[in-house]
Structure formats: structure tokens, C-alpha cells
């Protein structure tokens, strides 16, 4: 445990005079939290965790200053983007300084296929700029309007676009990261190649990401489409077939079984009760072959927004990924969720078994994504929460049957997806954050190192 | 059998006065053949098959006229592109008229993601036009400089680009086809959606393709790269890993085991004897992550041509797919080849077994391609030919072990890849070519219909 005394905080802040500092308790409290309340397990663990002050640097020189001050006075520093994470990634467990990166948004350069940008750029704003040259970011969470690229790389794993480009951790999806260290004399390091994985998805525990180089995807003319199906497994098989179709250009293949669409106020008129819906983003050039898939699986297209209306009216993507959970919880706050990758099972049999087994308790919202070169259904199941014990039983049941759970009910990096220590991340932390000041308490390997 | 009498031919030609007609025997002979001589089995079967005259229409109206004349006089009509096929697809078995489509090359329109073009456009020339708006054709055979789009759709199945976009027959890779029929009153039909498969890969047996609508891919800045490996299986596993990497943008992943590279005069200095080479086309934005794959599999990059030099010097693609066979045969004309899809085998074990089993007799040149959503190694094995019996033994051995052979030693559509009758193609032929005049003798289903 670090000790964050009022004196130490005061010393840090006095070192940082002239920077944009927030100490108002209400604002600091707001900027200490994220969407961890999706988890009834994390809720009691994190609700009373707050930083002592927020600093908002406008450039890397200021980031260096902040790092220097925190190291000098041994005050914890927790980096924050837009706070759209769900696992308390950016909630400071031991108080200290919150470094809010959202004022650093400059695009350093862009070219066909890649962009270099500061960590605080919002994904939608970045997309707007790169689309001017015909390109867009490869993948984004459903919170793309507010989420930052630094936060996404630091705490996310994939999203809209993953049905084509896989996960953030797949080689090629992150080209370079620039980080400020927390050594006695903080340094600026550029990590490239596989070295980027030393800090990617490390929740800011081993470096302050200030700048990133990410690949871009061609900005196809995306059409947004809803297809209804009479039964869940037809919708799921349609999703798998479409995701497996190498000739079909797609950005989103989301399946929402009944009754989930009934939580979507704005979409209800397109998805009657009892229907199971696919929410899709497909290149307009592929609409005719899409119609053949729809026919093959007995679906019915009930909504179609042409690409030229993108940005107007309903954004279908904002009903998918964890926005599905958000909409459900806005109607029924007792609902929580899980994150599951189903095995590479040719006929979706395990999914079918689980769907029937759990009935109304676990609603198998599916997001298709590519994983290791193959499209597979991931589920962000909506779970009607009763007790933590029952939730853990459900998790164990999934795991025993061969489904892989990325547990969203823990703030420890390793206990979420990896289930094992990432030695490279630990060693990098030992090197660049010798006092363990960066986002303390989140890396199990650090806590348990001998 | 149709009967092509000199009188009938004369009548057809007299109906076509004013069109570009070739009757010079040498030229007609040349325009009757393709690269069937890659197959020592097809060689004796096809070497004496020639058309009686070649007609080269400049527009669809002329195609209609030719169709009309051939139907009126019951003369066979065989459509020809550049004649770069390898199975005698365009060799007229019963003489008659050869319709050479190469003068019809107009681009009707193009837009981001799609182009509409006449069937005789050469692939490279088409690419040159679409690249002006930042797009290119999704896949092409290694003969892209001379091959026509109509010939590729009529007789090809995939190629350079298939590692990303799969096969031509995959939904989304062919949007529309316009065909002229051979009924008493020839008609013009537009086929869209799944209807395109009525005529795709039908060798021109059931309609004269005059125009096509095909999807386009983003024109990434392709870098051409040679990587050497100390052993074949490292090269093969590298190829599989790179092909499975969803974050890596690639157009070509070709593996040429030793001694195949020694047949490539222009590449020898980059691939010493004893080395197994990967020939790659990778987006320049992915070169740093590529280096990590190379390191992981103990490879060494010995050649790298930047994208800005595309079109100058060596074109690596022209050493891959069936150009590999071409180069080998130019040194040793006794070499022939097979076409094999290996099963979705996680550790390439069958490939390894076959590689060791056959030694020098079968050289497992690999082309990775996406098949049903998953990258798999296809092999265009070079085979040291001895007898047809031995070749058939090799084929049967592959099939018995679970490898799928697309036999290039037959001119029958069904006996190549499909192994079964395509009822939709047969029914379409019954409808639009009731006299069986289009490329007679190539569709087994038609020959054997009751």
C-alpha cells in the first residue's frame, strides 16, 4: 500500500502550479469512476474509491511534470480517458492524482492505413478526421462517441470491427505506443513491434500512454440493417455464416435474442416481441449477397439505413456490445452481464445447449468476432442477477463446458481475460514504475511478486 | 455431337460480314488453345482440337449477332478471353466459332467498392483504372497482365487476394453478370444475387458473359517480400500463422519449398539453394508486426520492394500460383502439377506427412487462401510426371488421406473441383442453350442428361 497523505498531495499540486487542476470534491468524485456499476460485484468494492485531485495535461511536457511530481512525493497516479470502462480500470484504489488525458487530442499525422494520435482523442472525433482521407479506425467499443483511443488501448480488447480485424492484441492492430515512465527521472519511451504489448491492456499500471500509432481500415459505405428471425438459433447460425463469408465486407454482426430487443426503445417498432434480431453494419456494395443470406436463414429485413445517412438518426452500433447491457439496465437495473467466447464449434451446439438451459436467467446476446483467424460467437450475456454465488456458479458452469469467460466482475487485470501473469508487463512495470505508483492494486502479478 | 460442316461455317460468316473475323489457320489454331499443355493428360486429348473461325465483337450488339448466326446454322460457339486457363476450358472440342471477347474492355462505371466492366477487360488494365480512385480487384490469377475478367469468372476460382477474400464463388465476390443466350432468339439477361452462380465457373457453356459487376478491395500500399526459412515446416507454419492473423493486411502468402525457388532465375540471388521461401504481398503499414512473425518462425527477410515501386522490376506475384508451375516447366517440361486443399488441420500434420512421404516427386508449393472463413493451405504441387497411372495414384492417395483435389487434368467442369452436378447450371443451360451449342463437351451433366 502506498500512503497518500494530504501533505504529499499538497506538495504534488504545488509542483504543478499553472496546470489545469481540479480539486472540487464533486468533480473529482465524478472523474474517479467509470461504468463499474454494471457489476453488482464491483459496486460495493469500488463505490467509495476516489482520487484526491485531477490534473489535465495539455501536452507531453506537462505529463512529464506530473509524473515527476508524483514520483518525487510518492503519490499514486492513475490515468483516465473518458471513463467508459466497465471493470473499474481507472478507479484509483489508493487515492492520489488522476491524470485525465482528454485534453491531449492532436492527430500528429495520418496516411492511408495508419494514424498517429495523442492518447486523449475521442474515437468518433478521430474517425471524423481520418474519414476525410477515406479511412477509419479498425475497431471501436460501442462508447466510441466519448471513449478515448488511449483508454481503449489501455483497457479495452475489441469491439465493432472485430468481426473483421480480430482483437486489439492481434499483431497489426497497434503499431506503436509512446509512454512516460514513473522512474526517479521520468523518461519518454517509444514502443514498437511486439513491445507495444508491454503496456497495451495494462490499465495504465506500467506507463502513461501519451501517443499511439494505430492502423486504419478503409471507410466502406456502411449500411445499418436489422434482420428479424423467428428463432434464436436461426439468427445465431445466420450470424456465424455471415461472419464466415470471406467475400462479405462487415463491421458488425450482433445477435439479440428475444426479449433483449424489447429493451431498445428506439428500435421496438422494427423488432416485434418474440423476434430475435441481427443488428448489422455491412458495406453497401454487399447488400444483394446479404439478401441471399437472409433468405437462406429465413430472416426478414425490417430496417435499413443507407450509408449516406450515417451519423443521422439511430446509430445501430449504440445498441450492440456493452450498449446492449446499458439499454437493458436502463429498464431493469438488476441486470448484469458476462463476457464469453464460445469454442470453435462448427454447429454452435454448446451455445444452443446453454441457451435452452438458462432460459430467461441468461440472455445470450452475441457479438461475432474473429479470434485466431476464425469468426466465433462471443456473448455479452445479460444475466438476471440474484447473488454473487449464483453468478459464480454460472461462470463455473460455462467454463466447465468449454466456454471461455472474460470475467467483467474483477478489477484485476489478470483475473479478467488472461487468467495468467503477463511476465513482460510485470517486468516492464518493475523497470518503469519501481515504486508501484501507477494505478496501484490492479496488477495481481505486482501485488504477489516475491 | 454437333456437326460443324464447312457450309454451316460459311453461312455463319456470311451472316457476320463487317465484323472482325479471323480465318487464317495459324491464327485460328493459336486462338483455339490455352495452357492445357501444363497437363500431360490433357495434351494428347486436346492438341488437335481447333475452331473453324474466330470472331471478335466490339460490343454486345455484335455478340447478339454472332449468337444469332450460330443458332441459326447450329454451329458451336466457344467463348475465349486471353486463353490463360489450364484445363482447356476454352478449347473447342467440336470446332465451330470462337468468340474472342478481348475487344470488349470498357469500364461502364466504378465507385468505391465496385466496378462494372465488359468481359474482355484485362485484369491489370482494369486495376490500373480502379486504382485511380483508390481501389483494386479483390483477387486475380498470376496471369493478371493478360487474363480477362470474363475468362477469370468463367473459368477461374481464386488467386492472389484469396488469402483475404476467399474464392470467386463466395457470396460477395461477384455482384452481377450480363449474358447473351443461345436461344432461337438470343436474349440479354442480367443475373444478380445467387443467380450469378448459374454461369460463374461454367466455362461459357450456358451463356456468353458480356459484362460483369465485381466488388473492389481497398488498394493498400503493397510491399513485396521474400522470407527464407531453414526448413519447410517452419515456412508452412509461418504461412498459416500470418494467414490467420486478423490484424495483418495481406494479399499473397505463397510458400515455395526447396528446390522450387531454384527454378526462379530472377529470384535465385535472394533464395539460396536449400532455403524454403515465403513470397508475400503485405500492406506497408504492417511491416513492423510482420518482422515479429518472421522472428517467431526463425525466418530471414532477403528481399523487400516498397509499394511505391510496384510495377517496376520483379513482380513477385508472377512467381506464385500457377506461375510457379510455369517457371518450373520452363526449366523442366516434364513437370506437371496438382491442386489440393488441405483439411483444416491445426498443426498442418497431414501436409507434413505428405511432404516427407513424397520427397522429390511431389513438391508442395503452398498458396494460403480463405475457405469458409478460415485460412487454409492450398497446394499447387509440382509433380515429376512419369505416367498417368502414377499421377492418378498420387491423386487417390491424397483423397484417401482427406486432402481435397481440384483435378487440373480434366476439361470437364464437374470432374475438376465440384465432383458433382450443379443442377442450377444444367437447368440454366437447358433454358438458354437448348441446342447445346455453347462450348460443347465440357459439362458432364449436359452430356449425361437423360
Automatic annotation (TrEMBL), chains A, B:
Q: Which GO terms describe its biological process?
A: lactate catabolic process
User: Which stretches make up the FAD-binding PCMH-type domain?
Assistant: 47-219
Q: Name one GO molecular function term.
A: FAD binding
Q: Which residues cross the membrane?
A: none
Q: What's a Pfam family this protein contains? A: FAD_binding_4
Name-wise, this protein is FAD linked oxidase domain protein
**Species for this entry:** Leptolyngbya boryana NIES-2135
Amino acid at each position: 500500500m502506498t500512503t497518500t497523505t494530504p501533505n504529499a498531495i499538497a506538495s504534488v499540486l504545488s509542483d504543478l502550479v499553472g496546470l489545469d487542476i481540479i480539486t472540487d470534491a464533486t468533480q473529482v468524485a465524478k472523474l474517479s469512476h467509470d461504468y463499474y456499476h454494471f457489476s453488482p460485484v464491483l459496486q460495493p468494492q469500488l463505490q467509495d474509491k476516489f482520487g484526491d485531485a485531477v490534473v489535465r495535461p495539455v501536452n507531453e511536457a506537462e505529463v512529464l511534470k506530473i509524473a515527476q511530481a508524483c514520483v518525487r512525493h510518492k503519490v499514486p497516479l492513475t490515468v483516465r480517458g473518458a471513463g467508459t470502462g466497465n471493470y473499474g480500470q481507472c478507479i484509483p484504489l489508493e487515492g492520489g492524482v488522476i491524470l485525465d488525458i482528454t485534453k491531449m487530442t492532436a492527430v500528429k499525422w495520418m496516411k492511408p492505413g495508419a494514424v498517429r494520435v495523442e492518447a486523449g482523442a475521442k474515437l468518433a472525433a478521430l474517425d471524423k478526421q481520418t474519414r476525410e482521407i477515406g479511412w477509419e479506425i479498425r475497431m471501436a467499443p460501442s462508447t466510441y462517441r466519448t471513449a478515448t483511443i488511449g483508454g481503449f488501448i489501455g483497457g479495452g480488447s475489441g469491439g465493432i470491427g472485430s468481426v473483421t480485424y480480430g482483437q486489439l492484441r492481434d499483431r497489426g492492430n497497434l503499431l506503436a505506443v509512446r509512454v512516460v515512465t514513473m522512474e526517479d527521472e521520468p523518461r519518454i519511451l517509444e514502443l514498437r513491434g511486439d513491445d507495444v504489448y508491454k503496456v497495451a491492456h495494462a490499465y495504465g499500471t506500467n506507463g502513461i500512454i501519451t501517443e499511439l500509432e494505430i492502423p486504419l481500415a478503409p471507410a466502406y459505405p456502411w449500411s445499418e440493417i436489422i434482420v428479424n428471425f423467428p428463432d434464436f438459433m436461426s439468427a445465431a447460425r445466420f450470424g456465424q455464416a455471415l461472419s464466415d463469408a470471406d467475400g462479405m465486407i462487415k463491421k458488425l454482426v450482433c445477435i439479440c435474442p428475444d426479449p433483449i430487443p424489447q429493451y431498445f426503445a428506439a428500435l421496438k417498432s422494427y423488432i416485434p416481441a418474440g423476434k430475435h434480431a441481427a443488428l448489422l453494419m455491412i458495406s453497401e456494395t454487399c447488400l444483394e449477397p446479404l439478401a441471399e443470406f437472409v433468405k437462406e436463414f429465413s430472416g426478414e429485413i425490417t430496417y435499413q439505413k443507407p450509408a449516406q445517412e450515417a451519423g443521422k438518426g439511430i446509430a445501430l452500433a449504440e445498441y450492440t456490445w456493452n450498449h446492449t447491457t446499458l439499454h437493458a439496465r436502463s429498464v431493469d437495473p438488476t441486470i448484469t452481464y458476462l463476457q464469453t467466447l464460445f469454442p470453435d464449434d462448427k454447429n454452435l451446439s454448446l451455445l444452443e445447449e446453454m441457451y435452452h438451459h438458462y432460459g430467461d436467467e441468461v440472455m445470450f446476446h452475441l457479438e461475432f468476432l474473429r479470434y485466431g483467424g476464425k469468426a466465433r460467437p462471443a456473448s455479452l450475456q445479460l444475466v438476471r442477477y440474484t447473488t454473487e454465488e449464483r453468478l459464480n456458479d454460472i461462470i463455473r458452469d460455462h467454463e466447465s463446458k468449454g466456454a471461455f469467460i472474460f470475467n467483467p466482475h474483477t478489477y484485476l487485470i489478470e483475473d479478467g481475460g488472461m487468467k495468467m501473469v503477463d511476465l513482460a508487463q510485470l517486468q516492464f512495470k518493475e523497470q518503469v514504475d519501481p515504486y508501484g505508483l501507477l494505478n496501484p492494486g490492479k496488477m495481481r502479478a505486482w501485488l504477489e511478486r516475491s
